[in-house]
Amino acid sequence: SPSDPDLVERARAAKERLGEKVFVLGHHYQRDEVIRFADVTGDSFKLARDAAARPEAEYIVFCGVHFMAESADILTSDRQQVVLPDLAAGCSMADMATAEQVAECWDVLTEAGVADSTVPVSYMNSSADIKAFTGRHGGTICTSSNARRALDWAFSQGEKVLFLPDQHLGRNTAVRDMGMSLEDCVVYNPHRPNGGLTAEELRAAKMILWRGHCSVHGRFTLDSVNDVRERVPGINVLVHPECRHEVVAAADHVGSTEYIIKTLEAAPAGSKWAIGTELNLVRRLANRFAPEGKEVVFLDRTVCFCSTMNRIDLPHLVWALESLADGKVVNRIQVDPETEKFAKLALERMLALP
Ligand code: 13P
Ligand code: SF4
């Protein structure tokens, strides 16, 4: 069981044996049993920066998903080794854009005569290959906390943006935050010839959105928002920008996991909040803020955990830490040097955004 005192003690002991050699990063969507052993917690952006700021740690244990561990490997020195406690902790959204599909898309854009004026912007939730493609073509990475700044920068470099792989974050940022219209956005479907778009549609668009989405956030609907407002009068609706556009449009506040936490910290006692994001985080926030008289509920009770985030559990963490303490590196995530070079370029552009 996750609260098995023996496992808790083993994790503690292994961390103690490793001392300064190990640094454990935990994404906000991780289980309680894992997050308690994290040296730092954060959203994707904060964790990427924190990983890069720990040159003394020989081992970075990443409690999160595969693309985050890859990014940590890219941003840390070659001497440092990044470990993902369960290699099956992927991300279904990141898997929706493969290197071959994106290369084909770029050919379609080239055919239509728009590639030269298009800047790729890729969400952190993408493979190292996609990040390398982005770096090679003059683009940047973004996260949910800096998507607006990334798009502002991209539109200073070109006329159009190819936004990968989350159509919702791309659309929400363009329309809600930057005042573009829904008609400025087209969706490129990698499973259709030419992405399902004509050359004229590509030429007329400002935002070319990849047809990807998050399977967790995609399940919140406009009904979820309307129902909770009806059930709890005066409730504030706060959602992650990976939610569908109509959900974001109906919400009161929109932001990354870190933003969600900061907003609740600043909220007055007696306020009520419905949160549209992953369940581990919402539960933790509900428990944390209840004593302060802030009521936190889940936006839709039928939506649940991110199953791949949940793969990292205490037994996997104990196994990874004990192996490292015995001098054996398991589940190392290592990006090949050529991919790393261009992916790093794109990540560094993000880190340099104003
Ligand atoms: P943030 O932590 O950047 O808000 O991202 C959410 C997410 O889906 C990570 O997989
Ligand atoms: Fe991927 Fe969504 Fe899970 Fe985040 S919450 S890791 S985007 S599937």
TrEMBL record:
<dbReference type="InterPro" id="IPR003473">
    <property type="entry name" value="NadA"/>
</dbReference>
<feature type="binding site">
    <location>
        <position position="44"/>
    </location>
    <ligand>
        <name>iminosuccinate</name>
    </ligand>
</feature>
<dbReference type="GO" id="GO:0051539">
    <property type="term" value="F:4 iron, 4 sulfur cluster binding"/>
</dbReference>
<feature type="binding site">
    <location>
        <position position="27"/>
    </location>
    <ligand>
        <name>iminosuccinate</name>
    </ligand>
</feature>
<comment type="function">
    <text>Catalyzes the condensation of iminoaspartate with dihydroxyacetone phosphate to form quinolinate.</text>
</comment>
<dbReference type="GO" id="GO:0008987">
    <property type="term" value="F:quinolinate synthetase A activity"/>
</dbReference>
<keyword id="KW-0479">Metal-binding</keyword>
<dbReference type="GO" id="GO:0046872">
    <property type="term" value="F:metal ion binding"/>
</dbReference>
<feature type="binding site">
    <location>
        <begin position="240"/>
        <end position="242"/>
    </location>
    <ligand>
        <name>iminosuccinate</name>
    </ligand>
</feature>
<keyword id="KW-0662">Pyridine nucleotide biosynthesis</keyword>
<feature type="binding site">
    <location>
        <position position="214"/>
    </location>
    <ligand>
        <name>[4Fe-4S] cluster</name>
    </ligand>
</feature>
<feature type="binding site">
    <location>
        <position position="91"/>
    </location>
    <ligand>
        <name>[4Fe-4S] cluster</name>
    </ligand>
</feature>
<comment type="similarity">
    <text>Belongs to the quinolinate synthase family. Type 3 subfamily.</text>
</comment>
<feature type="binding site">
    <location>
        <position position="144"/>
    </location>
    <ligand>
        <name>iminosuccinate</name>
    </ligand>
</feature>
<feature type="binding site">
    <location>
        <position position="257"/>
    </location>
    <ligand>
        <name>iminosuccinate</name>
    </ligand>
</feature>
<dbReference type="InterPro" id="IPR023515">
    <property type="entry name" value="Quinolinate_synth_A_type3"/>
</dbReference>
<feature type="binding site">
    <location>
        <begin position="123"/>
        <end position="125"/>
    </location>
    <ligand>
        <name>iminosuccinate</name>
    </ligand>
</feature>
<dbReference type="Pfam" id="PF02445">
    <property type="entry name" value="NadA"/>
</dbReference>
<dbReference type="InterPro" id="IPR036094">
    <property type="entry name" value="NadA_sf"/>
</dbReference>
<dbReference type="GO" id="GO:0034628">
    <property type="term" value="P:'de novo' NAD+ biosynthetic process from L-aspartate"/>
</dbReference>
<keyword id="KW-0408">Iron</keyword>
<feature type="binding site">
    <location>
        <position position="306"/>
    </location>
    <ligand>
        <name>[4Fe-4S] cluster</name>
    </ligand>
</feature>
<comment type="pathway">
    <text>Cofactor biosynthesis; NAD(+) biosynthesis; quinolinate from iminoaspartate: step 1/1.</text>
</comment>
<protein>
    <recommendedName>
        <fullName>Quinolinate synthase</fullName>
        <ecNumber>2.5.1.72</ecNumber>
    </recommendedName>
</protein>
<keyword id="KW-0808">Transferase</keyword>
<keyword id="KW-0004">4Fe-4S</keyword>
<keyword id="KW-0411">Iron-sulfur</keyword>
<keyword id="KW-0963">Cytoplasm</keyword>
<dbReference type="GO" id="GO:0005829">
    <property type="term" value="C:cytosol"/>
</dbReference>
